[in-house]
Design brief:
The complex is a heterodimer of chains A (444) and B (110). Chain A has 444 residues and is α+β, with helices and mostly antiparallel strands. Chain A is built from twelve helices and 19 strands. Chain A is globular, with a radius of gyration of 24 Å. With 110 residues, chain B is α+β, with helices and mostly antiparallel strands. The longest helix of chain B is centred in the middle third of the chain and has 8 residues. Chain B starts with a strand and ends with a helix. The chains are: A alpha+beta (444), B alpha+beta (110).
Chain lengths: 444, 110
């Protein structure tokens, strides 16, 4: 049995979580998930500004903080902190923790290869819209293939203490150690599916140990000290989800079921580079306090494709808010919304998209929200989006005047006019697996 | 009689682009047939009105006593394009759990 703990569900997750996982009980592998789609374009921009950047900058200081303890306990760290510059990330880790052996997985970043792909007739059609990439018509800011667990296992095979990848799948972080420890092969698709589902359960950190859990949340123990998840993985593909003794939160059938369903598509076809997992084969059983045993998982072999995620510049947006107090807060906010729209129309400003929401009334659920005839306050939130930056900028000047020239009791304008932000959009596509060749480097 | 779905189920929701997924889970396995009967894709779409512009597809996970709803064009463009506060559909499960369903007391009683 090996213990794989996840100490980071996204870049920005609780800084203390990985430290506590190492300090508060036994683990063999610490995995850390830093990358969301939006992260890739951010780090690509950072790298363009400074060739020594382009990775998750929280990661090297964390390793510096836990280096002595993981060396002493033999804990291996696997993280997709490398962003678009895993080697620079590894060098910074070596600078802060010279006693550790650090390996990187390279080969996911295909930004420079896009023109070559297109020239060779790979259309890179959008998985959602079916359009070929040639229709994108604006600047591509990053392009990365999602790589699977086998390159991570190969990196662990070098004896590295820390393995840094770029854009690997979240689930691969958990499957990599299993392949390394148990000798699983690509043909072991049921086992890989089991590892993948274990990875899915822990990939959002505390979301499987009581965080964001609707079931019985009022009785959730000690949120402030919530324990992050640990997989106790067996060579036969069965595993237990648990957390360190004495930590807050809860591991129960309810908390695990909620996370199993999180961001799930077709449960029969959970596709990763390592294979296809079938969520309808999962069997759960209580295994004592804060322990859930998972068995029975089946899968199918991997597809001949890898997913690539391309990000591109898609115009600008701005979102502004104004708060109206009771009485009749919603009516005031709705009138203000109509006034703003009228004034924009009178300026002949058109936007690719415009959206208004009324916080306190129905922003989250629209008509599914319960009626409240007299909310104490309502926040009007208006957003516009367009490729014309000037139009978006002009919009940002149309909200604050309402404080003096619109319906009464407007407030909450203290931050001034809202900022104009660049919109980065995503283009998911498939690419033949053989196009992506990864390699492992040990960074001295 | 009418009961809120939250009386017999919990859940979690999230996003994939402009699609929201809403997972609804029976607290007790014996209540799963009530979910199957009452929480249809049509009712989910109706419950959220203009919030869900596209189709709603239901997947069944009897092993978990759960249903997974894929709600298309439900997040105002989704991801970075959306201007909504809940562009990731994080609160949609809570919204669906507020839906009233028909159930006989003999079905859901203790």
């Amino acid at each position: 049995m090996i213990r794989i703990a996840n100490g980071q569900g996204f870049w920005g997750d609780w800084l203390e979580a990985p430290v506590r996982l190492v300090e508060q009980g036994p683990i063999d592998y610490l995995i850390l998930d830093y990358l969301a789609e939006v992260t890739m374009s951010i780090v690509q921009k950072q790298k363009q500004a400074d060739p020594n950047l382009g990775y998750a900058r929280d990661f090297p200081p964390l390793i510096g903080r836990i280096a002595a303890r993981i060396k002493e306990r033999g804990v291996k760290v696997i993280a997709n902190a490398g962003g678009v510059n895993p080697v620079a990330c590894a060098r910074e880790v070596k600078r802060l923790a010279p006693q550790l052996k650090v390996a990187v997985v390279i080969g996911d970043d295909v930004l420079d290869r896009i023109p070559d792909f297109l020239a060779r007739g790979l259309e890179l059609r959008n998985l959602d819209t079916g359009k070929p990439l040639s229709e994108i018509g604006s600047e591509i800011t990053s392009a990365n293939a999602y790589i699977g667990a086998f390159p991570l296992a190969e990196a662990l095979g070098t004896g590295a203490d820390v393995v840094i990848a770029g854009r690997c799948t979240d689930t691969a972080l958990a499957v990599g150690p299993m392949i390394h420890a148990f000798g699983w092969k690509p043909a072991d698709f049921h086992l890989l599916a089991a590892g993948t589902i274990a990875g899915h359960i822990v990939e959002c950190g505390a979301q499987c140990t009581g965080g964001n859990c609707i079931a019985d949340w009022q009785s959730m123990p000690d949120f402030a000290n919530i324990g992050y998840p640990i997989i106790e993985a067996e060579p036969d593909g069965s595993f237990v989800i648990t957390k360190h003794t004495g930590t807050g939160g809860r591991v129960s059938l309810d908390t695990v079921k909620e996370q199993l369903l999180y961001e799930l598509g077709d449960p029969h076809n959970y596709i990763t580079p390592d294979g296809i997992a079938d969520f309808t084969t999962v069997r759960l059983a209580s295994d004592g306090p804060d322990r859930v045993r998972v068995t029975g998982i089946q899968g199918r072999p991997a597809t001949p494709f890898l997913k690539i995620s391309i990000s591109y510049h898609d115009g600008y947006k701005a979102i502004g808010t104004l708060c109206y107090s009771w009485p009749n807060a919603l009516e005031k906010a709705q009138l203000a919304d109509r006034i703003v729209r009228q004034r924009l129309e009178d300026l002949n400003l058109r936007f690719a998209a415009m959206d208004s929401e009324f916080f306190g009334a129905n922003a989250c659920h629209g008509p599914a929200a319960p009626a409240n005839s007299q909310p104490a306050e309502v926040m009007l939130r208006i957003g516009v989006q367009d490729r014309n930056k000037k139009s978006v900028d002009r919009f940002t000047r149309e909200l604050i005047p309402l404080v003096l020239n619109g319906p009464p009791t407007a407030t909450g304008y203290g931050d001034g006019r809202p900022p104009v932000r660049e919109v980065i959009a995503y283009w998911p596509a498939l690419i033949p697996r053989e196009e992506i060749v990864t390699r492992v480097e040990v960074v001295e | 009689m009418k009961i809120p779905l939250s009386r017999i189920a919990h859940g979690r929701s999230g996003d994939k682009g402009d699609m929201a997924n809403i997972g609804i889970i029976a607290y007790e396995e014996r209540h799963y047939p009530i979910l199957l009967r009452e929480v249809t894709p049509e009712r989910v779409k109706q419950h959220f009105g203009d919030r869900i512009r596209g189709s709603v597809v239901r997947h069944e996970l009897p092993n978990l006593g759960a249903l997974n709803f894929l709600c298309h064009e439900a997040l105002g463009g989704g991801g970075t394009l959306s201007m909504r506060i809940d562009a990731q559909g994080k609160t949609y499960a809570a919204g669906l759990l507020g839906m009233e369903i028909d159930a006989d007391p003999s079905e859901f009683g203790d």
